[in-house]
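for the record, two folds in this file. i put them one after another cuz i was lazy. first one right below, seq on top, C-alpha cells after. the second one comes after a little note so u can tell where it starts
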Amino acid sequence: MNLFDFLRERKPKTSAATAKERLQIIVAHERQQRGQPDWLPKLQRELVEVIRKYVPIEDDQVQVALESQGNCSILELNVTLPER
C-alpha cells in the first residue's frame, strides 16, 4: 500500500453496498430470532396482560429473553414500571 493510496479520498458507498449491509443486519436478526422457542412471544403477551391488571404499562416496556447455559435455560423478564 502506498501512502498516496491511503490519503486518496475513498469512493462513497453505492446504494447496492448500503442495501447489502442492511440485508446482512436483517438476516443476522432473523437468525437470532429463529433460535427462540415458538411460545416465547405468546408468553410475553400474556405476561403483559397480567402486569396490566396491576400497573399501566405499554407493550414495549416488557422484554423477555431466553438464554441457554449448558443444560439449564434462563428466562429473563425486564419490565419498566412507571414512576409513581
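(here's the note) second protein begins now
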Amino acid sequence: MSVKVRFAPSPTGVLHIGSVRTALFNWLFARHNNGKFCLRIEDTDKLRSTDENTELIFKILEWLKIDWDGEPVIQSSRIERHKEVAHDLVKYGKAYYCYCSPEELAFKKDECLKKGLPYKYDGKCRNLTEPIPGINPVIRLKANTSGDTSVNDMVQGAVTVNNSQMDDLILLRSDGTPTYMLSVVVDDHDMGITHVIRGDDHLTNTFRQIQIFEACGWDVPTFGHIPLIYGPDGTKLSKRHGAASAIDYMQLGYLPEAIANYLLRLGWSHGDDEIISREDAVKWFDFANVGKSPSRFDIAKLQNLNGRYIRERDNESLFEYMLPFFKYELTDIHKDRILKGLNGLKDRAKTIVELVNSAMIYVQSPTSYDEKCKKYQTELHKSLLKDIATKLESGEFACHEDTLCNQVRAYADSKGVKLVEIAQAMRSALCGCLTSPSVFEIVAILGVKETIQRFNRYQSELLA
C-alpha cells in the first residue's frame, strides 16, 4: 500500500514546537516509504484563524525543509462537501436531526455534574420521525452504542473503548457549519490519507472519528499517536518554560538542521546516534523506535547541539544565515572581517544571536564597557596600550597574530608584567569585554588603523 500522510495545523495561533515535531515525523514516514506528505490548513474557526498565522506555517515548514506534495488543502473551501456528507448520513439512517435547545442540554449537563456523573447526550431526538417546526436542528451521528471500538495504534499499540462511553456527537451545527470531527474525517477520506500521525492528545477523538468513517462506509486509516513534549518540570511544554512556538526558535537564532535533529531525537531513537543527517533520518525512520512516554524538552541540550551545527557550517553559508540578525548595514569591509574572524567566534556561540553579538567586534567600536574592564583601566594599562599602539604604528610590531603574540609577550617580560595583563587591557579596548577570541587575532583582522583608534578612544573616554 502506498503511504499518504498529512500535517493539518490550525492557523488560530502560532505553530507550537510540538506541532513541528509532528510535521517532521509525518514527513520522514512519508519519505521513508516513498509516499506523499500533504499539508492541510484547518481554518474553519474563522473568528480566530488568521492569514498571518497561515503564512507563518508555510514559512516554518520551508525553513525546516519540510516540503509538501501538491497544493495545500484549505479546509474552509470544503465546507459544502462536509455538509453534503452530513446530510447523506441522515438520508441513509446513520445520523439524525436533533432539536434540543442549548439551554436544555446545559440543564441536563448541570444535573449530571451535581450527581457526579459524566455527561453524554441522552439520544432524546434519535428516533424522531417528524421535524419540529421553527427550530434549526443540529445533525448528530447515530453512534454505535454496543460493543467496542478499537484502534491498533502504531505507537500506543491496541487500544479499545467500550461504545457505551460514547454519545451521538454533533456533525453539523444549527447554523449549518460542520464540526471538527466531521471535517477531519471527510478531508482525510477525500485526500486518500492512509496514515494519521498526530499527538496523543487526539487519541480520544480517534474512536469517535472511526465511528464516522464506519458510518460513511469508508476505509479507516492507520493511526499513530505520538506522546506530547513536556517541559523540564514534567508539564506540557508552554510559554512559561520559555520559547514554545517554532517562530521563537527561528528568531532566537537556532539553525533549522539543529532544530530538526533535536526534535527527531525527542521520542525517537536510532541506537546511540545523536547527530543524524536528514538523509540518514529518512533512511532509518520507523515507528518501531518511537517511544510511548512523553519527552522532556531540554534547552541546554538544544543549545549544545545548535552550537555543534554552527561550528560545522562553512563560514560563507553561516555568514549568509547571520545577515538578517544584524541591526546594522554591513559594508564589504565588515563582511571581510567577519569571515576572517568566524573560526574564532563560532567556537563559543550556541545560537546565531550570540554569534552576531560577538561578531560586532568586527563591525564597530565598543559602545560601552563591561564592569570587569575596570580592572584594566589603570595608569599602568594606559601606558602599556600607548606603547603597543606606537609600536604597531611604526611597524616595530607586526599586524600578524602569531608574530604579534610573541612580540607582546617579549614586551611584557621587559616591563615585568604578565602577558595576560596586557592582553586583557587590549581586549577591553577592542571589544568592551573580557571574553573574545585571541586578542592578537582581532588586531590582525581589524588592522593597525582601527586598532589604534579603539585604543585611543578607550583611553580618552575611560582613562583620562
